[in-house]
Amino acid sequence: MAKKEAPVRYCRFMVDGRSYSGQIRGNSVDIVEGDPFSGIISQIRLSYPVERVKFLPPFAPKKLWCIGRNYVGHVKELEHEIPSEPLVFLKATSSIIGANDFIRIPAWAGTIHYEGELAVVIGKAGKNISEEDAYEHVLGYTIMNDVTARALQNKDGQWTRAKSFDTFGPLGPAILLTKELPKETRVVTRLNGRVGQDGAIEQMIFPIPRLISHISRFAALEEGDIISTGTPQGVGEIKAGDLIEVEIEPIGMLKNICSE
Ligand code: MG
Question: Rounded to the nearest whole angstrom, what is the distance from the C-alpha of residue 18 to the centroid of ligand 1?
Answer without folding.
Answer: 32
